[in-house]
Specification:
alpha+beta, 7-stranded mixed β-sheet, 4-stranded antiparallel β-sheet, 5 helices, 13 strands, flat
């Protein structure tokens, strides 16, 4: 007599799903943490002559002037590396305390030169990651007028909602929302300008005459790694929990 086909239980299916999700989240988070530790793993140099082609290096110094500068959208400041954010004050189920949630974010950079005590080090491509001191340019409640450049920026970007439920709630909730300042928006920039002190981590070019950058920062290596990996560390903790739960449900342990 043929045995009945195997039919996995709900517990087995759920356990397998938890295990798979945990492994995927772990792989993504671990990859980013490893990339962030390049700030530590890189060799400190002060001149391109100190590097080997293709090696991971770190150089610290001041930003030299560059003609192809970016213009920060909210402060209209010229810079060589930029990360800007628009955040909106909201509530959510996990955090009942009103706080700012990022609704728009972008990063940009141009080629520039780092001046060190030993000479000039060309940064030959735009940096991929910008982690600099956050500067709050403006914080505006729903009923407050925004700076002209901010109005223009939001109007020119279709992916930034002009209104949300937090900015335009039902009439019965408006007094509470206004009291909690829900819907307020905060506009911030992280930027590196001419004369600023920065640390650049990247790969030495094939001819060892410049750096192909990975990270531009204005903090010591330890602080830079922590700032880059905060969300990934949370992801690792979540993945460990998911993997452990999946293993238990599958009866492996």
């Amino acid at each position: 007599m043929a045995s009945p086909p195997f039919q996995p239980s709900i517990t087995t299916l759920f356990g397998g799903a938890m295990l798979l999700v945990g492994l995927v989240v772990f792989a993504v988070s671990a990859r980013y943490v490893w990339r962030a530790t390049s700030v530590y793993r890189a060799t400190e140099i002060s001149d391109t002559g100190d590097s080997v082609a293709g090696s991971l290096v770190r150089v610290s110094g001041t930003v030299a002037h560059h003609d192809a500068a970016l213009v920060a959208p909210f402060s209209e400041t010229k810079c060589v590396a930029l990360r800007y954010q628009i955040e909106e004050r909201r509530l959510n189920l996990l955090n009942p305390i009103p706080w700012y949630v990022t609704i728009h974010e972008a990063t940009g950079a141009v080629e520039f030169t780092v001046e060190t005590s030993a000479g000039s080090v060309p940064i030959i491509k735009p940096a991929r990651t910008v982690t600099l001191t956050k500067r709050i340019i403006a914080t505006k409640r729903v009923d407050e007028a925004r700076l002209e450049q901010i109005q223009t920026f939001e109007r020119d970007h279709d992916d930034i909602p002009e209104t949300t439920v937090w900015r335009d709630p039902p009439a019965v909730l408006q007094p509470l929302f206004r009291f909690l300042a829900l819907g307020s928006r905060r506009y911030s920039e992280q930027r590196a300008e001419t004369g600023d002190s920065v640390t650049v981590v990247g790969r030495s070019t094939e001819d060892a005459t410049g750096i192909d950058p990975l990270v531009v920062s204005d903090r010591p290596p330890g602080n830079t790694v922590f700032r880059m990996t905060k969300s990934s560390i949370v992801g690792l903790l979540v993945s460990f929990t998911s993997i452990l739960l999946g293993v238990v449900l599958l009866g492996v342990l």
